[in-house]
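residues and backbone:
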Amino acid sequence: MTVHDRVFDGSQPRPVAGAVWGTGSPEPRPVDGARAAGSPALPPQSFAGRRVAITGGTAGLGRALVHELLSRGADVAFIARKPNGVVRVSQELGRPHGIIGDVSSKEDIHRIALQVLGALGGLDVLINNASDLGPVPLQLLADTQCEDLERALVTNVLGPFRLTKALLGSLAAAAREKGAAVVLNVSSDAAVTPYVRWGAYGASKAALHHVTRIWEQELSGSGIRLISLDPGDMDTAMHAAAVPDADRSSLKRPELAAREFADAIAAALPAMTAEIDAVRLAEGA
């Protein structure tokens, strides 16, 4: 059921230790301000003609990614659970396709995938951003309810796995047509550092990171590139729920993280890398 026009019912990014980039793609590297001394800044790479799906797209990093990629010319579909949020972001940003759905629900996944492909006509980039902290306030593992751990695992691991699997054929088709497709799984330093009281979230992000690494190996040669990146500590509602007494002035703005993620995706797409090289060549002439 359509509930709104284009709304359908239903610091720099840190490569996590062992971060995975697809076969043939550049190694993880700084993507904002990390250029040779004296060389001019590159303009943001265009995503014109690229079709991008983003989960958790109504708040924090997800909303910032929707805005950033739209501003670079991408055709964007975003997914979120709450109808009011989906309608609001679609109205605010004007052009994205909003899809109401819950990636933690097995029953929603194929509907979401069909609506993404129906809206975009294919898919070049999937960003698995939707996340769940587990128990809030954060709890020691011994005090964590099984249901809270299960919810974090279903949202942060099974959800991205199911959605990626459902869209794999379309990503492979884009890779054959354009040379590459990208799946970016948003990770965390909690995936590799055993922070006290972050057990449910950390365990789920560690599993997602390892799934990314394994899938990268299994899809080697397909042209689908897998990236697992940690955006850093951001000034978002999710971080405030986890660390309510944090100094917000010390936290990264999600808009900055979104720009850095967009640059990381661009670096993994060969046509965009060629455009960057052409700009550098022209500037050096």
